[in-house]
Every structure is written in C-alpha cells, then in structure tokens.
Amino acid sequence: MQTFRSPRVLIVEDEILVSMLIEDMVCDCGGQVVGPAATFEQAIALALEEDLDLAILDVNVAGLVVYPVVDILRHRGIPFIFVTGYDPSVVPERYRHARVLLKPFSHETFGETFDAALSERVGALAIS
Fold first, then answer.
1. Residue 2 included in any domain
2. What SS3 state is found at 4?
3. How many domains, in total, are found in the chain?
4. CA geometry: angle at 37 spanning 31 and 43, to 5°?
5. CA dist 18 to 37, 64, 122, Å?
6. 70 CB contacts (<8 Å, ≥6 apart)?
7. Residue numbers of the domain that contains 66
C-alpha cells in the first residue's frame, strides 16, 4: 500500500519577504518546504543532498545566477520553476522550456504553475 506524502519543494530566494510569501504559497498548495536557501552555496547543497519533488528558484541569488543549481536539478530529473523580477528573456536558451513566474505573481498563478510542474514530475515518474 502506497502512502501519500506532501511534495518536497526547494525554495531558493534571497529576499526574506518574498521567500516567506513563496513558503506560504507552497504550504497552501500542499507542499513541504525544503530550505529555504538564501545563498548560492545553500542552494547547491540542498539541490545535491535533499529528496526533492520540485524547486522554485529566483534567477538571481545575491548577485549570482542560479543556473548551476538548475543543472543539478535537471540531472536528477527534478522539475523547477524560475521566479524573477526581470524580463523572461534573461533566461538562457537552454532553459527556455522552464516555467517562469514573473514577480509580482498572484496566488492563483502560483498555484496553477505549481500544480503543472508537479504533474510533470508525477508523469515522469510514471514513465520510469
């Protein structure tokens, strides 16, 4: 018998108020927060070590781009959502398939994007 567990969601965000808002939204969507990571180093460590179902990543964390973290997640087959206040064109071509939430975003938009990303993970697990 398979037991249900809340999806484990890594949050990478260096702005504390934004991080708290995202944490609340993840919990409202039924997720369990991993982190949050406010530094690049914390994000790398959590991406490498934690059991994750999804990651929500600010593109710029304290002046460093988050793409090396994304590469780890992609290698592990973990879907991710970029969060940015910049134009989505800042995302390099190799990550253009990714979901992007533009700051500020609504709770409804967050929930829809969260659910879509998690269903991507569930679909990939069902295939493997």
1. no
2. coil
3. 1
4. 105
5. 12, 17, 27
6. 57, 80, 95, 98
7. 8-127
> How far does Cα 19 stand from its chain's mean position?
12
31 Cβ partners below 8 Å, 6+ apart? 6, 7, 8, 9, 53, 54, 114
User: In this predicted model, what pLDDT tens digit does every residue of 24-78 receive, in sequence order?
Assistant: 999 999 999 999 999 999 999 999 999 999 999 999 999 999 999 999 999 999 9
Q: Taking a C-beta distance cutoff of 8 angstroms, is the pair 72, 105 a contact?
A: no
**Whole-prediction pTM value?**
0.91
Q: What's the pLDDT score for residue 50?
A: 98
Question: In this structure, what CATH number is given to the domain that contains residue 70?
Answer: 3.40.50.2300
Give the whole-angstrom CA distance, residue 83 versus residue 105: 9
